[in-house]
Design brief:
This protein is of the alpha/beta class. The chain folds into two domains: 150 residues, Ribosomal protein L4/L1 (Ribosomal Protein L4, Chain: A, 3-Layer(aba) Sandwich); 41 residues, no CATH class. The chain contains seven helices and six strands, in the order ββαααβαβαβαβα. α2 crosses α3.
Length: 209
């Protein structure tokens, strides 16, 4: 699959880039995508939820009434879960929601997601560019020139670029990631993937098993 390389004015440069069919044209695996996205979202959870059980709350240990003769159920502690202010029964405890996923499954998921985007013609190749200083207006102009102003976009860079990152940080519909850290959730969450020309080769190196 070949795509024309565009400049930041949105015009064709006359060059074309071939996308690797082993990455952008495979038989997609929906189950691998499901597992990878599930793991990503699970890893975002802090898991710090906690409620106090009867052994952890503050309260007297005095027996609140005599054992027999009251006509009601026996009760030995005000901290019992059946009383107001008592401990919680089987309450949430801190835990880690993450789980292991094999690297080959992750690779398959990301290739599958890129294949879907390629089949939907949702990938653009942009020639390498840099901003002299962080400037949000310039980033908005680039999106407008590429005719993706109203679309959630993911810019894939070959290496870290602080100026581009800071220029897009305040735009809610723009995300920036380097090719080696590209993940399935980001690919699927974006309406359009914008690959910088040098990042295409970087993706080939990253996804090579």
């Amino acid at each position: 699959m070949e795509l024309s390389v565009l400049n930041i004015e949105g015009k064709e440069t006359g060059r074309k880039v071939a996308l690797n069919d082993g990455i952008f044209g495979i038989e997609p695996s929906d189950h691998a995508i499901y597992l990878d996205v599930k793991q990503y979202m699970a890893n975002q959870r802090q898991g710090t939820h906690k409620s106090k059980e009867r052994a952890e709350i503050t309260g007297s240990t005095r027996k609140i009434k005599k054992q027999k003769g009251t006509g009601t159920a026996r009760a030995g502690s005000i901290k019992s879960p059946i009383f107001r202010g008592g401990g919680t029964v089987f309450g949430p405890r801190p835990r880690n929601y993450g789980f292991k996923l094999n690297n080959k499954v992750k690779q398959l998921a990301r290739k599958s997601a890129l294949t879907y985007k390629a089949s939907e013609n949702s990938i653009l190749v942009l020639e390498d560019f840099n901003l002299e200083a962080p400037n949000t207006k310039e980033m908005v102009a680039v999106k407008s020139n590429l005719q993706i102003a109203d679309k959630k976009s993911l810019f894939v860079l070959p290496v870290e670029n602080n100026n581009i990152y800071l220029s897009s940080r305040n735009l809610k519909d723009v995300s920036v990631v380097i090719a080696s850290e590209l993940n399935t959730y980001q690919i699927l969450n974006a309406k359009t993937i914008v690959l910088l020309e040098s990042s295409v080769k970087k993706i080939d190196e990253t996804f090579k098993l």
